[in-house]
């Protein structure tokens, strides 16, 4: 990344984060409450936690669950979305279930996941999938349906097979919308991971945060929150980089919208 791109794309983010941190530091000094610690003390606590191998081990397990759950969501969600976009009969069959899962609070299904999988990583992984897959299905279906039909008809005139149309027309055209959906789905998957660890399992970063809260260690709670947000920003940045490479043909204004 050259210096001009860094100034344009990265500096505003860093300035915003630093500015919010300064404001919170000032507010915490004014409020002076134990449940609202200063950011400076939270950062010191975060450094202490990062040096603790036990916390890093918990975070590693959380990231493993997130990776597995989100990967399954992406593969199944995009595949089902493409199928629904290309086959209206399939979309009509699964539409009621997708709508139900989208509108129902996922946390209500926690007792079911707990009953089926018990206190295990698979209960968390299923919850991560629940949080993200249905949004991907709807977004991918919409993206496939929005492909320019004139281009598709032209490809048929030149003898393109259905597989060639899918590979050369549908997927590239739908990619910008799908990547936008992936960024939102990633955030939802992280929420599913934290909720699962808070309410289902006694492992991972969510369980560690709950332990700190029970001890009223608010600096620890805030430090773990910053750690999760930081990793989410890094994963989002990686996803944006992949998006930029895959969708080079899309105007930058539209891609960054």
What can you tell me about this protein's structure?
There is one protein chain. The protein has 257 residues and is mainly α. It has one domain (58-255): Orthogonal Bundle (MetI-like fold), CATH 1.10.3720. 84% of the residues lie in helices and 0% in strands. It is built from 11 helices and no strands. The model is unreliable at 253-257 (pLDDT under 50).
Number of helices: 11
How helical, in percent, are the residues?
over 70%
CATH homologous superfamily, by name?
MetI-like
**Arithmetic mean of pLDDT:** 81
| Total strand segments | 0
Distance between the termini: 20 Å
Short précis:
By secondary structure, the chain is an all-alpha fold.
Descriptive keywords:
mainly alpha; disordered C terminus; globular; 257 residues; 11 helices; MetI-like fold
Question: Helices and strands in order, then pairings?
Answer:
Elements: H1 3-31, H2 39-50, H3 53-86, H4 88-103, H5 110-117, H6 121-145, H7 149-157, H8 162-199, H9 204-214, H10 218-246, H11 252-255
Helix pairs in contact: 2-10, 3-4, 3-6, 3-8, 3-9, 4-6, 5-6, 6-8, 8-9, 8-10, 9-10
């Amino acid at each position: 990344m050259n210096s001009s791109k860094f100034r344009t794309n990265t500096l505003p983010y860093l300035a915003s984060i630093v500015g919010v941190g300064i404001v919170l530091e000032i507010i915490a000094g004014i409020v002076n409450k134990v449940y609202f610690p200063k950011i400076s003390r939270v950062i010191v606590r975060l450094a202490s936690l990062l040096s603790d191998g036990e916390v890093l081990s918990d975070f590693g397990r959380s990231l493993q669950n997130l990776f597995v759950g989100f990967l399954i969501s992406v593969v199944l969600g995009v595949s089902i979305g493409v199928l629904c976009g290309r086959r209206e009969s399939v979309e009509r069959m699964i539409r009621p279930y997708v709508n139900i899962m989208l509108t129902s609070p996922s946390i209500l299904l926690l007792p079911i996941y707990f009953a089926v999988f018990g206190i295990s990583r698979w209960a968390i992984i299923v919850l991560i999938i629940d949080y993200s897959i249905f949004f991907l299905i709807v977004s991918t279906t919409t993206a496939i349906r929005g492909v320019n039909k004139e281009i598709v008809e032209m490809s048929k005139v030149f003898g393109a097979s259905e597989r060639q149309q899918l590979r050369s027309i549908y997927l590239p055209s739908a990619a910008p919308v799908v990547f936008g959906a992936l960024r939102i789905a990633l955030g939802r998957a992280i929420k599913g991971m934290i909720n699962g660890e808070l309410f289902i399992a006694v492992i991972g970063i969510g369980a560690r945060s709950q332990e700190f809260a029970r001890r009223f260690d608010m600096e620890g709670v805030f430090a773990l929150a910053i750690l999760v947000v930081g990793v989410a920003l890094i994963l989002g940045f990686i996803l944006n980089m992949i998006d930029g490479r895959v969708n080079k043909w899309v105007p930058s204004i539209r891609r960054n919208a």
